[in-house]
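Morning run. Coffee first, then this:
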Amino acid sequence: MKKYLDNVRRIAPLIHNITNYVTANDVANVLLACGASPIMADEEAEAEEITAQCMGLNLNLGTPNQKKIQTMLKAGKMANKRKHVVVLDPVGVGAGSFRRQAAEELLKEIHFDAVRGNISEIRVLASLCESEENSGKGVDADNTDRVTEENLAQNIAAAKMLSQQLKTIIVITGAIDLVTDGSKCYVIKNGNPQMSRITGAGCQLSGILTAFLAANPEDKLQAAAAAVCMMGYAGELAAEKSGQSGSGTYRVSLMDAVSCMDGDMLERGACYEIR
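And here it is:
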């Protein structure tokens, strides 16, 4: 795990984020905190030019509109042309038909190096691959739709199958995180429940994930797992620091934990197994 974070801090990859207005500031700051460099640009007229200069592209469906989807398509195709990393965060993809159609178009037109979402969002994407209608709670995972020890093997198999179908790394985040390339699956047990009580922890992780992949192009599965471990471990450290102070303090402590983490800390704190 150590070398993947060390590479991010050494290379400082420039990451283009077409993200949502709810969490854009947090995504930019967490990228700076982990050692990367963010640029936030969602104007269609400059999408290709900006993307061409960046090592990674992070696409987030949190607050979609027609113009933004066209910007994402242009940026994604340019990133593919330049062989730069592209990550999709299908926020709330099950909330309505517009988001589902947008996700379907993006997956059809762009090759993604990784797709990150909660279990509800990933299951909606799986249903799109099967040409079935589905619906979801919104941006949060349904309480009945979680990865647990009891259903772990089933969810690992499903994640591997979707990874093979989409030819991309699938990252499912929750109480137990799964990161798979269709062959191996990292089962990650870092994190803290308070992460689900603030807006933007998942969006921040998608930014970090893009940076880790961009800085470690030869070891993408391992780099993706390291990014997830880093965010989860930061969540644990933030909980220790903030105590019972509340979600506002926890949000700041989470950013601090990412900023202060180094490769040795990540190596010691990462909790995972490979299936």
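The mean pLDDT is 94. Good start to the day.
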